[in-house]
Amino acid sequence: MTDFPLRREAPLALDSAAFRALGHRLVDLVADGLAGVPNGPVTRGESPAAIRKALGLGGPLPEAGVDPAVLLETTTRDLFAHSLFNGHPRFFGYITSSPAPIGILGDMLAAAVNPNVGAYPLSPAATEIEVETVRWIAELIGFPGDGGLLVSGGNMANFVGFWAARAAIAARDGHDLRKSGAAGGPKLCVYTSAETHTWIQKAADLSGLGTDAIRWIGVDAASRMDLAELRARIAADRAAGLRPFLVIGTAGTVSTGAVDDLPAIAEIARAEGLWFHVDGAYGGLAAASPDAPAELRALALADSVAVDPHKWLYAPLEAGCALVRDRKDLLGAFAYHPPYFHLDEETTNFVDLGMQNSRGFRALKVWLALKQAGAAGYRRMIGDDMRLAALLADAVRSTDELELTSLELSIATFRFIPADLAARAAEPAVAEYLNALNLALLDGLQKGGDAFVSNAVLAGGRYVLRACIVNIHTGRADVAALPAICAREGRALDLAMRPHASAAVGGRA
């Protein structure tokens, strides 16, 4: 070992001057790229093969390295040339927000410090910032709990609530779930609406309960859980000797943004001795706005809530947040202390509150944005998104051949109906054609680059376009432009598709 140099020169190392030069250049490139996003397409709709060719992908790992200046320059150029931009003002798809600029910089700072926010000794400042971030999020939505942590997104935040519920109810029943497992106790049942996101299937599956444990409760015409059916299903399961343990309310359904009657569900859960969890991954954060549905105030009654800062707090991906009323329920679900962990119980060690041991500094980008905008700033931005969705709905109503089908929170759904088919839209052949037409319209919009929307399937099997606004860059001009784009593209598609439609629609004989 005497021939090993005193000063190591690793292939990945950069001295201060080189790092500074590269960093300054990268910030300039990114700033230029971001400035150009609103004037370019939302996406270019390229195929996987085209992307691989453009980025020079598919070859073997190179034996020799590449100059980092060249590497950063070409990679930045390629990413801005071949990505979909959820920060584009006309991105209305799914529920993915524009990244706050301070969050972009926060991710760089977090990576520079690189703490492992699993244990306090490895991340003293980062741990305390995450504790405060979780507390501020709870304050913003009126949730009174003292437990929580940041996770990757809505799936994981909901999983945390599910696992905390399972462990807490088992402990209440005197069942040592962690030792004997789900099979060692009564058969558990979970109640949720038919509109709930598929995370619940994953949670039931991976928790050992199986998807048969899920009781899918029907919804009313507004996509809200049917409470009479909920009560009946709970009673039937008790009569069958099963153990109802969890009821899930939804604060903002994926399809339309509907909010369940959370106060009534909370009352049922309390009366039945069930854990009450709210999937608020999208809509929960709207509780910060005075313009939000009154039902969201019942988040304060939940045992656990899932929200996504990378949705309506505009944090760059990834950032989900699980909130639990009693911190001890997280410890009961997740904490183990093997001999190689020497942790002070007086400090917060997030390894005890969730699944991960190794955890990145997700909180920094969220904390910085909360500090920059403040509660008042977030109330304004979230309210603006909902007001823009209402303006979009008005624009759809006033656009020939577009039918508004729902408006909830910041989601509007609508579909294109050719004028000569409007009166016959309920006829089976016409309804089938309209679904096919709107599916083709969605595909064209998602590949065309003028605007990006997603879809929903509503009652009666109606296939509709779906525009969701969680975007600090979207303005009135953008929502005013969307209906015109959809009508223009819809008419062109109808001209191309009608000759091939059935005679019952008015196409081929």
Reported CATH architecture of the largest domain: 3-Layer(aba) Sandwich
Determine the N-to-C terminus distance.
87 Å
Structural class: alpha/beta
Counting structural domains, the number is 3
Chain-wise SSE layout:
Elements: H1 16-36, H2 48-55, H3 68-82, H4 101-113, H5 124-141, E1 147-151, H6 154-172, H7 177-180, E2 188-193, H8 199-206, E3 214-217, H9 227-239, E4 243-250, H10 262-272, E5 275-279, E6 304-307, H11 309-312, E7 320-324, H12 327-334, H13 363-397, E8 402-408, E9 411-416, H14 428-448, E10 454-458, E11 462-468, H15 476-497
Parallel strand pairs: 2-3, 2-4, 4-5, 5-6
Antiparallel strand pairs: 1-7, 6-7, 8-9, 9-11, 10-11
Helix pairs in contact: 1-3, 4-13, 5-13, 6-12, 13-15, 14-15
Concise account of the structure shown:
With 509 residues, the protein is an alpha/beta fold. The chain has helices spanning 16-36, 48-55, 68-82, 101-113, 124-141, 154-172, 177-180, 199-206, 227-239, 262-272, 309-312, 327-334, 363-397, 428-448, 476-497, and strands at 147-151, 188-193, 214-217, 243-250, 275-279, 304-307, 320-324, 402-408, 411-416, 454-458, 462-468.
